[in-house]
């Protein structure tokens, strides 16, 4: 029996060692599993661009393309121009019509020209002289009639001539007064309205002409050109595709357990292949809706598959380091 005691103790030691090793392995697996449940320090995403498509509201042949694909242009720099012969002629016609309407209004407001007034005044002076002569002749004829030197008929002729001369004087006096007056109020108002209509027509013609030349609304990269010189372009069709630096943004996805700690204004760092250093950015938008695949019932195990889209924007001076479609890794700053 004594001889059997030692083997029993050895078997007990071996069994205990096996149990400890098994527990260690299980603990290691548990620790490994626990580690695998930790959220990663970085999240995957990509760069996206909000492009600006430059077009004209007017149709026409592309006359000049002042930029090239890949070129960086300044704000208000000329980008392209369409043929504008018809619009230029319409603008010039509207300008001349406005000048004519304004001249007519000025003429109505000032009355007749001074030389025309002087002509009427000279006619008045002549009529006044004739009237004085007729009045003197009438006085002599009245005296002659009392003396019996002339007939009543001759006196009547003298009276008619004197009355006619006096009426002509009054007429010319009124003409002089009218010549110094401006046009009637209603006539002036109508002409003033015509001037405003001509001015609006000119503004419309100038706007259509300006639409034939398009400038860059902001500084940025010419991402692509969509037409060549000489091609016909329909109104509203984009000719140049631009990407201003402020329109470069990042989209990345975070798990459901992390989204609650992120908010607009939070600073992040972006890593991309080929970048010399991480690019700082600021979160601008956090999605309220989860993106979830596959469509299964939520559970404690499946909630880790819920992801939320986050958008962030780099500073304008850093936007050139990122390219639309480029994959990136994001971490909190």
Description:
With 333 residues, the chain is of the alpha+beta class. It folds into three domains: 38-50 and 244-332, Elongation Factor Tu (Ef-tu), domain 3, CATH 2.40.30; 52-84 and 209-243, Beta Barrel (OB fold (Dihydrolipoamide Acetyltransferase, E2P)); 90-207. The protein has six helices and 14 strands. The strands form three sheets. Strands 1-10-13-12-11-14 form a six-stranded antiparallel barrel. Strands 2-9-7-4 form a four-stranded antiparallel beta sheet, with no helix packed on it. It is rod-shaped. The relative contact order is 0.17. The model is unreliable at 1-37 and 293-299 (pLDDT under 50).
Summary, kept brief:
This protein has helices at residues 2-37, 85-110, 114-147, 152-179, 185-210, 256-259, and strands at residues 43-49, 52-54, 60-65, 72-73, 78-82, 213-215, 220-225, 232-233, 240-243, 248-255, 267-272, 279-291, 307-314, 327-332.
Report the uncertain regions.
Answer: 1-37, 293-299
How many structural domains can be distinguished in the coordinates?
3
Distance between the termini: 72 Å
Q: Report the C-alpha radius of gyration, rounded.
A: 49 Å
Q: Any idea what the shape is? A: rod-shaped
Number of strands: 14
Which range best describes the helical content: under 10%, 10-25%, 25-40%, 40-55%, 55-70% or over 70%? 40-55%
Which structural traits does this protein have?
single chain, 333 residues, alpha+beta, Elongation Factor Tu (Ef-tu), domain 3, OB fold (Dihydrolipoamide Acetyltransferase, E2P), six-stranded antiparallel β-barrel, four-stranded antiparallel sheet, 6 helices, 14 strands, 46% helix, rod-shaped, disordered N terminus
């Amino acid at each position: 029996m004594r001889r059997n005691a030692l083997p029993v103790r050895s078997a007990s030691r071996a069994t205990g060692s096996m149990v400890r090793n098994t527990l260690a392995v299980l603990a290691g697996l548990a620790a490994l599993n626990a580690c695998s449940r930790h959220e990663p320090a970085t999240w995957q995403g990509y760069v996206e661009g909000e492009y600006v498509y430059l077009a004209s509201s007017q149709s026409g042949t592309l006359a000049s393309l002042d930029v090239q694909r890949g070129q960086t242009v300044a704000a208000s720099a000329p980008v392209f121009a369409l043929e504008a012969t018809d619009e230029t002629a319409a603008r010039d016609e509207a300008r001349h019509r406005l000048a004519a309407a304004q001249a007519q209004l000025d003429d109505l407001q000032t009355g007749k020209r001074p030389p025309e007034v002087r002509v009427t005044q000279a006619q008045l002076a002549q009529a006044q002289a004739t009237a004085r002569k007729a009045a003197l002749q009438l006085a002599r004829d009245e005296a002659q009639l009392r003396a019996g030197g002339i007939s009543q008929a001759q006196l009547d002729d003298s009276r008619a001539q004197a009355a006619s001369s006096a009426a002509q004087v009054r007429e010319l006096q009124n003409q002089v007064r009218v010549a110094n007056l401006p046009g009637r109020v209603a006539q002036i108002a109508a002409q003033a309205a015509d001037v405003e209509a001509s001015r609006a027509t000119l503004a419309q013609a100038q706007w259509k002409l300006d639409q034939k030349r398009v400038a860059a609304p902001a500084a940025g990269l010419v991402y692509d050109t969509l037409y060549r010189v000489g091609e016909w372009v329909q109104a509203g069709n984009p000719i140049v595709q631009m990407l201003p630096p402020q329109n470069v943004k990042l989209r990345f996805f975070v798990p459901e357990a992390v989204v609650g700690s992120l908010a607009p204004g939070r600073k992040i760092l972006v890593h991309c292949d080929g970048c010399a250093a991480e690019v700082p950015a600021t979160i601008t938008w956090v999605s309220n809706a989860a993106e979830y695949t596959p469509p299964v019932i939520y559970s404690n195990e499946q909630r880790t598959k819920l992801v939320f889209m986050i958008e962030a924007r780099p500073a304008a001076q850093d936007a050139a380091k990122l390219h639309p479609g480029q994959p990136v890794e994001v971490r909190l700053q």
